[in-house]
Structures are given as C-alpha cells and as structure tokens.
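Working notes for the structural subgroup meeting. M.R. asked for a predicted model of this chain before we commit to crystallization trials. I am recording the input and output together here so anyone reviewing the notebook later can reproduce the run.

Input as submitted:
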Amino acid sequence: MAAPVSGKITVHKLSNETLSSLDNAIRVPRYDRATLSPGIVHIGLGNFHRGHQAWYLHRLFDAGVDLDWAIVGAGVRAGDAAMRDRLLAQDCLTTLIELDPSGHRIEVTGSMIDFVPVEEDNGALIAQMADPAIRIVAMTVTEGGYYIAPADGAFDADHPDIQHDAANPDAPHTAFGAIIAALKARRDAGHGPFTCQSCDNLQGNGDALRQTVLGLANLSDPELGAWIEENVTFPNSMVDCIVPATGPNELALARSFGIDDAAPVTHESYRQWVIEDKFCAGRPQWERVGATITDDVHAFEAMKIRMLNAGHQVIANPGELLSIGTIAGCMADPSINALFMKLEREEIAPHVDPVPGMTPEAYIDLIETRFSNPEIIDTTRRVSFDGSSRHPGFLHPIIRDAIAKGTPIQGLALIEAIWARMCAGTREDGSVIEPNDPFWDDLTACAQEAKTRPAAWLEQEHLYGDIAENEAFVAAFTEWLDLLWSDGLRRAISRYTGA
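Returned structure, recorded in token form:
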C-alpha cells in the first residue's frame, strides 16, 4: 500500500525510462514491454477500459504469459486524438490509483503499446484491424453508442451515421463501419476473421454489437454480411468496476505519489469481468487473473445491470435534484439511502436470479458498500448523464417484467417521475441543471409540458413504448410527478419509504 510521498517530492514524467525511478511501493510492470506484440485493437480508451480490461491483460503479462496479446488503442471521435497524444507522450502507460478507505494502492500498467492515428475516414484504424496479428477488436463506446432504437431494441438503420457508412463503406465514420471494412480486407486477403468484443455496460452487449455490425454490413454488402455472420463471433460479457472521471484532483493525486501522468485513472477496489467463451481467433487466458469464463453470461449481467446500473440511477437522479455532488454523498443521505434499499429489495431483486457465489440480497449489500465508499469521488452528474440511454437500458426492462408479473411498481414509477422532474432543468434549490444528455433540449421541453400534463413524459414512445399503455404504471407515475412538483422530493420519498 502506497502513501503520498512526504517532504520534497520528486515528480517523474511517466515513461518507460522513469519506471525504475518511482517509489518502491508503486507496482510497475514486471515484464519487458519491448517483448510485447499486438493482438487486440481496443476502440475507446476511456478510464473504464484502462482501469478494467487493460488491467486484466497487464496482470496476465506480469505472470509471463500471452505476451502476443498487447493492446493497440484506437478512437473514432475527434476528441480521441487528444487522448492519443497524452498516452503516446508517456509510452501508453497508465497510473491506476485504487481508492479504498483503508488506503491507496498504486500501479502502473503497460498492456497498451500503441495508439493508431485518429482520422475521419478511419484509414489507419482499418489497416491496423486488417493486420492478421490482430485477433480481437474490442470496444467501450458507451451503452448509447450502438445505434439501437430504445423503444424496441432494433438496429437504427435510418441514423445519419449509419446511412453515411452504408453509402461510403471504404471511408466510414463509425467504429462499426471501420470493423466491417477491416473484415472485408481480411476476407479478401484470406486472413480470416477476428472476434468482435463489446466491453460496455449493456445487457447482451455482444448480441448488440453483432446486430449493429450485421445490420450495417447488410445495407451495403449483403454477401459480406453473410460471411461475417458465418465466421465472426461476438461474445457477451459483463464488466464491473466503478471508475470516476479524471480531473484536476486526480492529476494532483498522481503527482502526490511522484508521478506526472497526463491521464491517470482512479478506481474502486472491486473488479469483475464475466466473459462468454466464444472467440473465433483465440483469446488471452484471462481466467488466470480473475476473470470468469462461462457459456452463460446472462445471469451475471442481469444482476449487475439491473441492480448496480439501475441502482445508480435510483440514487443519482434524486441526488442531482438535491444538489448532492457525489454518489457517496447520495448514499450518506438518509432519504436517498432508504429509497435505494427499499426499491432494490422489493422491486428489483424479485426480477434477478442468483449467480454462483452471490444472491441478489447479498449483492444489494455489496453495492451499498461500494456506492458508500467516500474515497470514490464519483460525481452525481457523471452517473446521471445520458438518462435517455440508461433508463431504457437499465430500468425499463425491470418495469416491463414487473408489469407482466404483477409485482410492485410504485418505486419504479417514482424513479421515472424523479428523472422527469430532473430533466425539467432546475434543482430544488433553484439552481440550473446544465445539459446532461445528448437529447437534453427535447427532454427538457417534454418535462416542462409534463409539469401540468404528466402523461406527456410517458408519451415519448422511443423511450417508453408499451410501458405507457399500462394504466397502473401511468397512474402511479402521474401521482408521483404531481407530488414532486407540489410537495418536493423528500416528501415523495418519505411517502414511498414510510420513513
């Protein structure tokens, strides 16, 4: 366990050359990075990937195995170029800082060895993925990045990005278009396919990736689409680790340990990765460093997405309305904590099956502990971002199950009403909530109308679909939203929890 360097601090710019100069308490790569060769292209080099998937591979290299599976980073957005510059300037190393109430643990990971240029036509990315040495193309592009219609989960073939890539398959703008172009090049050269691996918080993430890749390929080249369907695999997986955004405090924290890292990552002490064993071109031995390899990911991902990811929305939306800045702060608030515990136990857990080694009830206690960690400065704003993807992805399937089974829905309706109240754009103290969703303007306009006509919110068919047809849910939602506007959030929570 490392402690901030006391006295006069010598800060070293992170690089291969300075690894040996770091404090002895900081764990650095135990392998010779010069011996690594690429096997994975990962698209989306955000904090989560570097604190989660890249760490598993780093620890595998530490064990001296699978050194031909190193990561080449990639991005398809203009903003990814800045991350590329930061990481290349420090030899693609990343400082991980584990935040635990008992102290900090510091580790420098080195499983990433390069980052392809970020180009509008994705030429460099396509060429890298077409290299037969690459056997897995993985991605973290957020759960809202798969061109899925929220109401029915179908492929959104009419999206302008998809239409562009279908018309310009050799110069695509999306990661999916680039993947298809690379697979075409490999097929034509006789190199065989690579595995496409989603690492996003999305139930059935491999199935979602498969739907998007096949849907786009079939728009421009059905013959190629058929080849991909027959030869390429898309394993489902469940990923779990709380990884806050990096800002000035995190940069300063890294420097307090003597490391000048332009992109450090802080994270909790818990990680989980459950992976479907479906890889058409081989894979690293992730199970040797703690990953779970299974033929049935669904139960694991359902527990995590329905209880942890949905639970995040349960506390972040009211926390935003009450001007509580962090997730730990939300859990320390008695009203929000009571809301979380009652809703999880009575309205979410009944729709979650146990998994080996964990019951839904025990998982609730684990989540409460993780969310309450005061060392994790995970902002309420970050967690409440993109509700238009997170509510349909995490909460609405539970609502549909509850409606079908006739189980309680009052708390679920309350959370949807709280989200609608939040999207009206002001907190209860009168301060303005800055835009926090890709469709914020539309959500705000609808939320303002729902202030006097609550049903307007549920009439967003692309979000709620058939949920809006259930009279009991509509009645509960209407009652809660009216109460939120008339008596406030704490009164509404108190009525639900009885506290």
